[in-house]
Design goal:
The structure holds 2 protein chains of 2 kinds. Chain A is mostly helical. Chain A contains 13 helices and 4 strands. Classes of the chains: A mainly alpha, B mainly alpha.
């Protein structure tokens, strides 16, 4: 039978990827928020994600809660190691989360909650990118606990991954707004998405070239067979997705740019997975070592197998209910 | 500001601070979600517009409170790892799956249907909208169920064994989920959430009745809240009594601290109504007490012997002063709630429910008291669990992450500043919304019906809307 811990690693990876894509575009909308021209466009941008952001962010809780449930050792090593980026991300998410409701409840303080929405979104995205970079760099573990220093997470590499995630989320956000709006806001985002696409590809290139140098194991994996096959295939696939993005933008398509941007994220995520496997926390903590006992994995798996398809179904339904272009006059406030 | 404090003290302060802020929102949103489901159901059944007006009014208040609950809750799910990583590593195999079930069966459900409940009535129609509203309410209750199972397991662990890595590992999931204190705690907390909501709704109703006795939505909400109070307050006192007896069985030291029993009473213990705990001398100063009643309450028997804290080793003793006081605050408020409910029931019987300004003022004073009682209750049970995180098995001092004091101090300071700023503003907006009559078109901004360039659909769906008010 296939190892339970690997099934669970797949489920957690799926939850994190789902989070990155879903909250990625709504954090991206927050990052682009200051570009909105006037109250009408601001309302359109915010209302395009208002009914769904909460569900999107739940995947983050699923990632954290799931890690606690099935890989408690990984959870208890990673959280102290990434103490500051995690805390800053949480605080940033507070600001942007409450802004959804608060900005409609006050006239005088509206600009403050607009800044909270933008600032919270961009800081959360940056910190997630830093956390990713710090994880790729590797986390020092000794005696079932984090053994590194308080600033280990901060490096040129992690700052680069932080910026990469900010630009990438902005791309997702811009293509989402293209999908959900019409007129001048859509045109503005089409132009912007082109540049954000270029920026995202540049960051992917730089980070991909730097990654093998973070750990000799990555290096040998990507440059020897069978890994080197992926070293050829992955860039080709990313280029194909980029081609779909740019042709979609040029042709003024509504949905194609968004799907292409998502594909780029999925490909990058697979790339990170190839680097990590079979570790869950590089360089030394493996999936099997970090896993909880089989009894815990099995108990949690039963519910997951039943509930996750239901969650996906009603989440899809919620998206379906709010499909189509945003009506600038709609809202419940 | 936090000079000289250990990382453990700071981490405990941080957890106490963030969880105390957090519990306020679920305590309210569990009750309001159910209230909204009832209001929407009644509106669909009777087509009485007052119900729809109330639904739309409390829906907007719910949305703000729920948003605050979500963001303060995300913090909790990561704080176990950042500050209490040893606890996470050791209890993860047992508690982790329960929390995963909470996410899967509750958080997604609430989040998935919240958008439809708030924004989607026109898009999905009445029936599916009702379904979504019910799912949000059901989700809040599921959430309470799982997290109280987790908390109860920390109080009364069962169904586990300890492996050679020192981790708690599951043996019997049924025993873990339905551990000895879970049913009592769940009932006590859900009733507390309903009481808290009833008090808030009653307080808001009372406020608007003082301004205008003819205000139909205010009359309706006040009446519903007072019914809720007279039904639930007695049930809660009963549930609390059962919970106390359960605690005596499994965590006697906590009950000793609650009762202020430093000494054992072999011939029946007195009920100490008030007094000042003196931990140094291990006695209660200026105690005002009724002989035998503590034995009567806890053992349901006159003269039943009760052990005191003198039977507990000092290093296992919970902080008596805090538990002693918080318990009295909770119980005192519980009886005040019963009093308000009884008063309202009597005025209703005399046909004067809406014409008794003193009652409406009292309801306003009691409006926030549910929150105070919930916090006091949680302080009692959590501080009473000390000095353990897993009662009797894992000490709080051994649960801490390898964090340095300055890092915890900095994040604690950041949490304090951000929470007071963000949740202070949120509370202000909530109060301002509650200050407006239920028929108000827009609870935010200026009250006019126009937002941006468009007329909002609420104009068409809310027949009670008063344009321009």
């Amino acid at each position: 039978m296939f190892e339970l811990s690997f099934i669970w690693a797949g489920i957690i990876a799926f939850a994190v990827l789902t989070y990155v894509i879903l909250d990625g575009f709504d954090l991206g909308v927050g990052i682009l928020f200051p570009l909105a021209d006037g109250e009408r466009e601001k309302a359109m941008m915010m209302n395009s994600v208002a009914p769904i952001w909460d569900g999107n962010e739940t995947w983050l809780v699923m990632g954290g809660g799931g890690l606690f449930a099935v890989f408690p050792l990984a959870y208890s090593v990673v959280m102290p190691a990434l103490y500051m980026p995690i805390i800053l991300m949480l605080l940033a998410l507070i600001f942007r989360g409450v802004a959804f409701e608060y900005r409609w409840r006050t006239e005088r303080w509206k600009p403050i909650w607009d800044i909270a929405f933008f600032g919270g979104s961009i800081v959360a995205a940056f910190m997630q990118g830093i956390a990713l970079g710090a994880l790729v760099q590797g986390i020092e573990v000794a005696d079932r606990a984090y053994a590194g220093g308080w600033w280990d997470w901060l490096s040129l590499f992690s700052i680069l991954t932080g910026l990469a995630v900010v630009v990438g989320y902005a791309l997702l956000g811009a293509t989402w707004i293209i999908l959900k709006t019409e007129g001048s806001l859509q045109r503005q985002m089409q132009n912007l998405a082109w540049w954000l696409g270029v920026g995202t590809l540049c960051f992917i290139g730089i980070v991909s070239i730097m990654t093998p140098f973070q750990d000799p194991e990555y290096f040998s994996r990507w440059l020897n067979l069978p890994g080197s096959i992926f070293s050829v295939l992955m860039p080709a696939a990313v280029l194909a997705a980029a081609w779909a993005l740019f042709t979609g933008l040029n042709a003024g398509k509504d949905g194609q740019p968004f799907l292409a941007a998502i594909s780029i994220f999925v490909l990058c995520f697979i790339g990170i997975g190839i680097s990590f496997y079979p570790n869950i926390v590089p360089p030394s903590l493996t999936i099997a070592e970090a896993a909880a006992p089989d009894k815990s994995l099995r108990f949690a798996l039963v519910g997951t197998v039943v509930l996750v398809p239901m969650i996906l179904a009603y989440t899809a339904y919620a998206y379906w209910v709010f499909r189509g272009k945003i009506d600038p006059a709609e809202g419940y406030h | 500001m936090f000079d000289g404090m250990t990382a453990e003290t700071l981490a405990r302060m941080q957890f106490a601070f963030t969880v105390s802020f957090h519990i306020i929102f679920p305590a309210f949103s569990i009750g309001v979600a159910s209230f909204l489901a009832v209001l929407n159901g009644l509106w669909l059944k009777t087509r009485d517009d007052t119900y729809l007006t109330l639904f739309n009014y409390w829906k907007k208040i719910f949305a703000v409170a729920f948003g605050m609950g979500v963001v303060s809750g995300i913090v909790m799910s990561y704080q176990f790892g950042t500050n209490w990583s040893v606890f996470s590593d050791k209890t993860g195999p047992v508690l982790g799956p329960l929390m995963a079930y909470e996410v899967l069966s509750a958080f997604f459900l609430e989040a998935g249907f919240l958008g439809i409940m708030l924004f989607g009535r026109e898009r999905v129609g009445d029936k599916l909208h009702m379904f979504a509203t019910a799912m949000v309410a059901f989700g809040t209750l599921m959430s309470a169920t799982w997290i109280l199972s987790v908390n109860s397991w920390m109080q009364t662990p069962a169904g586990y064994s300890i492996n050679d890595l020192g981790q708690f590992v599951p043996e019997d999931w049924w025993q873990i989920v339905f551990n000895p204190s879970f049913p009592y705690r769940l009932v006590h907390m859900v009733l507390a959430a309903y009481l808290t909501t009833a008090l808030v709704v009653g307080g808001v109703g009372g406020l608007h009745l003082l301004r205008n006795r003819a205000d139909a939505p205010a009359r309706r909400m006040f009446s519903m809240a007072m019914w809720m109070l007279i039904v639930v307050a007695p049930l809660q006192i009963l549930a609390g009594d059962f919970h106390g007896i359960n605690t005596l069985e499994h965590q006697p030291a906590k009950v000793m601290a609650m009762e202020g029993h430093y000494e054992s009473h072999p011939d029946g213990a007195p009920l100490i109504l008030f007094g000042i705990p003196n931990p140094g001398e291990k006695r209660i100063d200026y105690a005002l007490q009724i002989p035998q009643v503590s034995s009567l309450i806890l053992k349901h028997e006159w003269g039943a012997p009760l052990d005191g804290l003198d039977t507990i080793p000092d290093e296992n003793e919970p902080p008596v002063s805090i538990v002693f006081w918080s318990f009295r605050v909770m119980v005192g408020l519980g009886f005040a709630m019963l009093g308000l409910g009884a008063w309202a029931a009597w005025r209703r019987y005399r046909g004067r429910l809406y014409d008794t300004p003193m009652l409406h003022r009292a309801a306003m004073v009691m409006g926030p008291m549910g929150f105070v009682a919930v916090l006091a209750g949680w302080i009692t049970t959590e501080v009473g669990r000390q000095p353990f995180t897993v009662y009797g098995l894992l000490r709080t001092g051994d649960s801490l992450a390898p964090v340095a004091a300055p890092a915890v101090a900095a994040s604690l300071l950041a949490f304090i500043l951000v929470y007071f700023f963000v949740f202070g503003a949120g509370t202000f907006y909530l109060l301002r919304m509650m200050n407006k009559p239920a028929g108000t078109v827009h609870l935010g901004l200026k009250d006019g019906p126009i937002r941006t360039a468009g007329i909002t659909p609420i104009m068409q769906t809310d027949p009670d809307a008063i344009p321009g008010e």
